[in-house]
Amino acid sequence: MKADEINQFLKQAFSGGQPPVVEAADGQTARCRIAYHPHQIRPGGTLSGPTMMALADTAAYALVLSAIGFQPLAVTTNLSIHFMRKPKPKDLIADVRMMKLGKSLAVMDVAIHSDGEEDLVAHSVVTYSIPPQSHGEQTGAA
Amino acid sequence: MKADEINQFLKQAFSGGQPPVVEAADGQTARCRIAYHPHQIRPGGTLSGPTMMALADTAAYALVLSAIGFQPLAVTTNLSIHFMRKPKPKDLIADVRMMKLGKSLAVMDVAIHSDGEEDLVAHSVVTYSIPPQSHGEQTGAA
Amino acid sequence: MKADEINQFLKQAFSGGQPPVVEAADGQTARCRIAYHPHQIRPGGTLSGPTMMALADTAAYALVLSAIGFQPLAVTTNLSIHFMRKPKPKDLIADVRMMKLGKSLAVMDVAIHSDGEEDLVAHSVVTYSIPPQSHGEQTGAA
Amino acid sequence: MKADEINQFLKQAFSGGQPPVVEAADGQTARCRIAYHPHQIRPGGTLSGPTMMALADTAAYALVLSAIGFQPLAVTTNLSIHFMRKPKPKDLIADVRMMKLGKSLAVMDVAIHSDGEEDLVAHSVVTYSIPPQSHGEQTGAA
Looking at the keywords, is Transferase present (chains A, B, C, D) (predicted)? Predict the structure, then answer.
């Protein structure tokens, strides 16, 4: 799938709120942006951790879809994230890289920074489970 | 802080959306519930991963506040989560346990299950950074 | 497999050094012990992190074997560990619990403490990939 | 500290076995190599997971020492690792990068590949706790 197809799908699939926007996705890497919104703010004037976790997860989903095609039932098996700097009230950008694309699992890392800044604000590793042809049992979360 | 004090604080601090509700918190363990809402639904009829990540993170925050008192600037340093079963459209409940409360870091694990069911849907380990007296440099996310 | 069968297998399979000893394993939980040895000591008089990581990994392997039978090619997909207290020069004991046993993945958590002490020294979450009948592609480490 | 100073220190500090060799370390990145040895072999003819975990941990330690100077009591707070391909019986090389060097925590990622091959065999994120001047309480493992 291409970036604009993924964006169309995400808008339908993610009820409740504006999903992050896929700016690029080529099966090996992807870039997603989440627009700043005041409801992301937490005490101290920084953006919430869940905002960054959701961004990392969606960016990984977008990369999986760009790599294997339309598989809406690909689900997250595990996600780990380290928060390194407190982001200012700005858009956040996630750059994802495919580290391993197997038959049943895709492992990616995600670097998140604020728009216009170089320093990493967070780094995440995300594993997706890829549904088998015949839709068998899967471990994970949508 | 007690559960009702934490709930009052979360309502102020978490702009945008209803935060999870702290049902119990005693400094060693805490329980939080997030009410089911249709916008949590993702393809396949299950609840989104970010819903569970946000619940784990808030539950850990609530436990930290119950353990060390009002420290709104405690921030997540890292969070890892494994998704094990796809939750049905129901409330989710998170049970958090303090594994280590140090001077600068608190490490907790979080077991998430659907209301009325026993099986784990997700398991998370969350580390919070506790701000020093004099509010020095910190690594983490709010 | 039962604990003594697993121990026999581990002695053959783990060339180079004494493997941890499986003290109990019933498919749902397992307990493993690694004997204290001076080469585990690191600066500060504490036991090395890799000693605890290897213990967590072997304990999870033992639990998988006790749950699904003799599958030597089950491999670790991912492992995360938090170190919470510096262990004294004593045996370490790992208690593993099966959180999810699926067709292709097993997810377990591991609590490690020093012999005769209650406090956790480390906590780990370990995922094993279970080889399919027909030995297909797998992601992981032995 | 420079690579050869770190190697000298590791030889003293790591009793029991040959430690990995630091080939380069400049405070921002480091490269470590662990020589292949038959005792690293596990069922299936691949190298053990604990070999890679120990390599990741030591490489991160080397990078911390190169960044902050001789601080033997820097300890691992947490480590997560994803295993992506089964390494052949060859030397393993770890490339570490400093993602965040704070006053109390250093966060690094580690890419591991087999000597002479490009594909990642494992990817790890490692957090070290840096001892305060006055050697206070710390959470972690040596």
Answer: no
- Do the chains contact at D139 and B100, CB–CB below 8 Å? yes
Whether C45 is in a domain gets the answer: yes
Q: Which of B46, B81, B87 sits opposite A78 (nearest CB)?
A: B81
Option in D84, D85, D125 nearest A123 (CB): D125
How far is Cα D131 from Cα B9, in angstroms, rounded to an integer? Answer: 34
Q: Which of B78, B103, B137 sits opposite D102 (nearest CB)?
A: B137
- Per-residue pLDDT reduced to its tens digit, B69-103: 999 999 999 999 999 999 999 999 999 999 999 99
CA distances from A29 to A20, A25, A55, D38 (A): 16, 6, 15, 37
Subunit contact B53:A50, Cβ cutoff 8 A? yes
Order of all β-strands in the sheet with B120-129: A21-25, A29-34, A92-101, A105-114, A120-129, A75-83, B75-83, B120-129, B105-114, B92-101, B29-34, B21-25
Query: What would the mean pLDDT of A14-31 be, rounded to a whole number?
Result: 91
Asked if residue B140 is part of any domain, the answer here is no
Cα separation, B37 vs B55, in Å, equals: 13
Report if residue D140 sits inside a domain. Answer: no
Q: Is the pTM of this model over 0.90?
A: yes
Structurally, chain C folds into a number of domains equal to 1
D134 or C35: which carries more pLDDT confidence?
C35
| Phi, psi values for residue A60, rounded to 5° | -65, -40
Facing residue for B78 by CB, picked from D78, D103, D137: D78
D104–A contact, CB cutoff 8 A: no
Residue A86 Cα, gap to closest chain B Cα (Å): 6
Give the pLDDT confidence of D50-88 residue by residue, as tens digits: 999 999 999 999 999 999 999 999 999 999 999 999 999
pLDDT of residue C18: 83
- Which chain D residues are Cβ-neighbours of B80 within 8 angstroms? 80
Measured between CA atoms, the residue of chain B closest to residue D104 is: B138
D56 belongs to a structural domain = yes
Residue B36, burial from CB neighbour count under 10 angstroms (0-12, 13-18, 19+): middle
A22 backbone dihedrals φ, ψ, rounded to 5°: -80, 115
Q: Determine the distance in angstroms separating the CA of D17 from the nearest CA of chain A, rounded to an integer.
A: 31
pLDDT value of residue B136: 44
Count of other CB atoms within 10 angstroms of residue B137: 11
Lowest mean pLDDT among B93-102, C4-13, C126-135: C126-135
CATH code: domain of residue D107: 3.10.129.10
Contact B14 A42 (CB under 8 A): yes
> Which residues from chain B sit within 8 angstroms of residue A79, using beta carbons?
49, 53, 80-81
| ipTM associated with this complex | 0.93
Query: Number of CB pairs < 8 Å for C and D?
Result: 133
Range of the domain at B29: 3-129
- Report how far residue B135's alpha carbon sits from residue D34's, in angstroms, rounded to the nearest whole number: 41
